[in-house]
Each structure stands twice: as C-alpha cells, then as structure tokens.
Design goal:
The N and C termini lie close together (11 Å). β4 and β5 form a beta hairpin. The chain is elongated. With 136 residues, it is of the alpha+beta class. The chain contains three helices and five strands; from the N terminus they run βααββββα.
C-alpha cells in the first residue's frame, strides 16, 4: 500500500467544478511514477534503463466526485503479479479529505522496454518485494 495527498486544481475540473475522468487517470499515472520513485526509480533513471510503465487495461469507477480545491489522497495497492505476461494488477483508490472513497481505477500495468516488449527487471522485483496486497 502506497499513499500520497494531492489537491484538485483548476485544470482538473469541468464547468461544474467536478474533477474530470481524464484527471483521475492523470493522477493515477503520476501516482504510479511516485511509487516507482519511492522504490528508487526516478523518471530519469527509468528513461536511462529504457523502461516505461504501460497501462494495458483499466477500469474507472466514480463513486463520489472530487471538487475543485478539495484535498484528496490516493492509495495504491499492488494486487497481483502475473509472471507469464509480466503484468501487475494495480488499484488506485481516491479518498476525499473526510476519508470517503470517491473513485477507483483498477489497471493491468506492464513494465515495457522502449522497443515495446515486456521485460523482467530489478524494477519488477522491487515492486514484488514491496509487497503484494494481502487482501488481493
């Protein structure tokens, strides 16, 4: 489980001041990069290793919209790892400042080389060692 706090900005919202779905996906991607940074892999280091996290499939569920100016947190759960296709099932849960669940993005993410194929790497091993979510 990995957690960071954020705030909804003006460019994230629609005319009704609610966060747009593209912003949820953008924060989800940013959160994955922050998680990799926490494991010791900055964007520059990933670029040097020629590794990019790539979302294969995702499911977005909006429960309660986040509004402009609201603080919110994202908790990342690494749910499963499939070594045969090299993909992680990641779950990003968005909570408002009252700790109410507002949205969930579940994604199947692989670590790909810039040539476009999945790789097994020390990054993959660090994510596994960080700990798969015991809840699953």
């Amino acid at each position: 489980m990995f957690h960071i706090d954020y705030r909804v900005k003006g460019e994230d919202v629609n005319d009704h001041m609610a966060m747009e779905s593209r912003a949820y996906h953008s924060y989800s991607t940013r959160h994955i990069y922050n998680f990799l940074f926490q494991l010791g892999y900055s964007r520059q280091r990933l670029n040097k290793l020629r590794i990019i996290p790539q979302e294969q499939k995702s499911h977005f569920e909006l429960i309660k919209p986040l509004m402009f100016g609201n603080s919110f947190s994202i908790i990342l759960h690494v749910k499963t790892y499939d070594p045969y296709i090299g993909s992680f099932e990641l779950k990003n849960s968005f909570f408002n400042s009252n700790k109410e669940l507002c949205a969930i993005i579940t994604s199947e993410t692989t670590l790909n080389s810039l040539q476009g194929h999945e790789i097994s790497s020390p990054v993959t091993q660090k994510i596994i060692n960080y700990g798969l979510d015991p809840i699953g």
